[in-house]
Amino acid sequence: MSKMMWAGRFSKEVDSKVNDFNSSISFDARMYKHDIKGSIAHATMLGECGIIDPADSKVIIEGLNGILSDIENGTLHFDPNAEDIHMFVEAELTARIGDAGKRLHTARSRNDQVALDIKLYLKDEVDEIAKLVRELINTVIDIAKQHTETVMPGYTHLQRAQPVTFAHHLMAYAQMLTRDLTRLADCKERMDVMPLGSCALAGTTYPLNRKRTAELLGFKDITMNSLDGVSDRDFCVELCSDISMLMMHLSRFSEEIIMWCSWEFKFIELDDAYSTGSSIMPQKKNPDVTELIRGKTARVYGDLQTLLTMMKGLPLAYNKDMQEDKEAIFDAVDTVKLCISTFTPMLATMTVLKDNMRTAAAKGFINATDCADYLVKKGLPFRTAYKITGTLVALCIEKNTTLEQLPIEEYKKLCETFDNDVYDAISLDTCVMQRGVDGGPAPDAVKRQIAELEDRLGGI
Ligand code: ARG
After folding, report:
1. Which residue has a Cα nearest atom 10 of ligand 1?
2. Domain residues for 263?
3. Are 234 and 369 in a shared domain?
4. pLDDT (tens digit, 9 = 90+) per residue, 371-427?
5. Does a structural domain hold residue 306?
6. Do 268 and 123 belong together in one domain?
7. Does residue 446 share a domain with residue 342?
8. From the CA of 443, how far away is ligand 1's center (Å)?
9. Closest ligand 1 atom, residue 318 Cα
10. Strand pairing of 193-194 and 221-222?
């Protein structure tokens, strides 16, 4: 741009370094569609209200549609010298249609325009992210359905604790991801309020029909305070926080997959298409995808920190600091989409090594609680039963055996209440089957959990 928009007030051109420093077009150009859509709605409303000549409104809309299709078909390129996407589109419009183009910005400021554009852009992105999360949840559920009887050790402190099933373990992630989905829906609800008409900060003297603009753009409502309308970036922070939580869940899932792939666990094997090798160690098959997701979680948390800190202590209303919102929220959105769209097919193609899960579950005394419960069911107080079982576990460790293999005589030596039925009570399958409480790992309980979640997902 050779001549600045504000040329009337200034006697000099802006220093080219300042121009570059000030410019956001390199990262806000991606909002071109939303900027044009917002301008078309604004021009439509201005024409309908008689604020500009309806004939001008028509020419403006045609001009904007022309710009949109030229950007999309690659014949119009963004001018890197433009300050931002809003200035670029307006200048291009005026170059194309002349004076009518200069009327588009009536009763509007870039302050409400940019707030509008980001909301329009992020509303679409929320839908995209939600779609990806839904696909991931469905993939998790599909795998869970095949593994309601696959016994594996459940852990606390990363120590084998009590038996669960692979389905139950997976469904824990489906629950987290479903909460993420509801958070995204909730965030979109609060984002769905149209700021245009707030203008620079103090609204306008023109008789705008803001509700009409909102209707044209598919917003549920309009903002009710012009200062807030232009200076609110809560929705960016909120979305970034929701994405951070989503990444937190993905990183936990990723971490488990990394462990499960190791020779120490060997609970699963990732498909070759989703693994990488080593440049020196021929035997290696590395879970790079999951490690990257774990790593990228850090950068999304960084984006959240950027947004929170950028907004901290900002006086009303618009301040240029707020231009820094875009790179952070765009990065968070891009990163989470990239992560989920790689993670889902990786999960769908992995091989579950059931036998290894079961072997691991058979070691580590994860049926010790059930052994204690056996005595409780025969009338002993829990603390007494707990102590007896602890002594039995120590005995097994000493004899290098398991509770299942320990002869009944040894049991009886410690407590007369034990009988041969103890072996059934502490068998892995019994331990899982008996945990049929709502939310428990027993196959029927997990099937109920899946059905309940599928039902709930239908309503989100
Ligand atoms: N590029 C600016 C942003 O992203 C647009 C708003 C500029 N408004 C202003 N008064 N300088 O925030």
Report:
1. 111
2. 111-146+162-206+221-359
3. no
4. 999 999 999 999 999 999 999 999 999 999 999 999 999 999 999 999 999 999 999
5. yes
6. yes
7. no
8. 56
9. 10
10. parallel
